[in-house]
């Protein structure tokens, strides 16, 4: 099994999980479908499924388009409000896709439908958890809840140190680290009180400001519809 971040640019990570000539995409971005197709073609891989760790606000997912065009499953957490999902998962789901086992852990907070996807030595954490100083995703966007996020972070204790944290956003070129490393270097995982978490989230939200693509991306993802005009692609 091979896991690789195949984003062509930007800060949103898209992971290819490949095994035995077949592949799954986790958090693909609509803007880069052609890029994914050329990567799959070059490597002789057949795309058999796609998954989203949560309903994204910062980009349009490629999941519903790839699912419709290729007639492959699109997996999301069972209670997601997003349309276009073909298969819902929960913590009892255990899937074998292309010879690789997938399981899921509910980690609400960044959004109410956030989940960790677990695959042989890797955890795909979306915006629930980033590597190192990046901390975690913000909780001030639709369906975000600070206390739920904090409680979800405490639930990480069931996961071993040696899993690699494959997160939803990292600066280009970032080396992914294990959960054990993050337990020593990620400020959020070292916090001891909810108040510290609230303070960090408040400061981070102020620094980040508004999400530029949210008014296009979020409705597109919720309704599984590509809008007629995508401002960042028509400039
Ligand atoms: Fe997000």
Helix content: 25-40%
Fourth-level CATH superfamily: Ribonuclease Z/Hydroxyacylglutathione hydrolase-like
Count of structural domains: 1
Mean pLDDT, all residues: 97
Shape: globular
Please, how many helices? Answer: 6
Strand order within the widest beta sheet? 1-2-3-4-5-6
Radius of gyration over alpha carbons? 17 Å
Care to give the gist of this entry?
The protein has helices at residues 33-43, 63-70, 146-154, 179-185, 194-208, 214-223; strands spanning 2-5, 15-19, 22-26, 46-51, 74-77, 87-89, 94-97, 100-106, 115-119, 122-126, 164-167. The chain is an alpha/beta fold and 235 residues long. The radius of gyration is 17 Å and the shape is globular.
Topology:
Layout: E1 2-5, E2 15-19, E3 22-26, H1 33-43, E4 46-51, H2 63-70, E5 74-77, E6 87-89, E7 94-97, E8 100-106, E9 115-119, E10 122-126, H3 146-154, E11 164-167, H4 179-185, H5 194-208, H6 214-223
Parallel strand pairs: 3-4, 4-5, 5-6, 10-11
Antiparallel strand pairs: 1-2, 2-3, 7-8, 8-9, 9-10
The chain binds fe (ii) ion.
Could you walk me through the main structural features you see in this protein, from its secondary elements to its overall organization?
- The chain has a single domain (2-207), classed as 4-Layer Sandwich (Metallo-beta-lactamase, Chain A).
- It is α/β, with parallel strands linked by helices and 235 residues long.
- The termini are far apart.
- The protein has six helices and eleven strands.
- A six-stranded mixed sheet has the order 1-2-3-4-5-6.
- The model has no long low-confidence stretch (mean pLDDT 97).
- α1 (33-43) links the parallel β3 (22-26) and β4 (46-51).
- The chain is globular and about 45 Å long.
- The chain has helices at residues 33-43, 63-70, 146-154, 179-185, 194-208, 214-223; strands at 2-5, 15-19, 22-26, 46-51, 74-77, 87-89, 94-97, 100-106, 115-119, 122-126, 164-167.
- Helices cover 26% and strands 22% of the residues.
- The structure holds fe (ii) ion.
- The site of fe (ii) ion has 6 residues, from loops.
- Residues 54, 56-57, 110, 127, 137 line the site of fe (ii) ion.
């Amino acid at each position: 099994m091979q896991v690789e971040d195949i984003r062509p640019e930007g800060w949103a990570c898209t992971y290819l999980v490949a095994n035995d000539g077949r592949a799954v995409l986790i958090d693909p971005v609509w803007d880069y479908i052609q890029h994914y197709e050329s990567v799959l073609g070059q490597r002789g891989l057949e795309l058999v499924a796609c998954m989203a760790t949560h309903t994204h606000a910062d980009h349009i997912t490629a999941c519903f388009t790839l699912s419709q065009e290729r007639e492959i499953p699109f997996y999301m957490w069972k209670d997601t409000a997003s349309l276009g999902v073909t298969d819902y998962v929960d913590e009892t789901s255990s899937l074998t896709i292309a010879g690789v086992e997938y399981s899921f852990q509910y980690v609400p907070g960044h959004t109410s439908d956030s989940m960790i996807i677990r695959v042989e030595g890797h955890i795909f954490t979306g915006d629930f958890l980033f590597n190192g100083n990046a901390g975690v995703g913000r909780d001030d966007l639709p369906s975000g809840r600070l206390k739920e996020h904090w409680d979800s972070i405490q639930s990480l204790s069931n996961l071993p140190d040696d899993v690699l944290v494959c997160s939803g956003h990292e600066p280009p070129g970032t080396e992914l680290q294990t959960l054990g490393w993050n337990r020593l270097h990620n400020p959020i995982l070292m916090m001891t009180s909810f108040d510290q978490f609230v303070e960090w989230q408040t400061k981070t939200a102020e620094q980040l400001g508004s999400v530029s693509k949210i008014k296009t991306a979020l409705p597109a993802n919720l309704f599984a519809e590509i809008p007629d005009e995508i401002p960042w692609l028509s400039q």
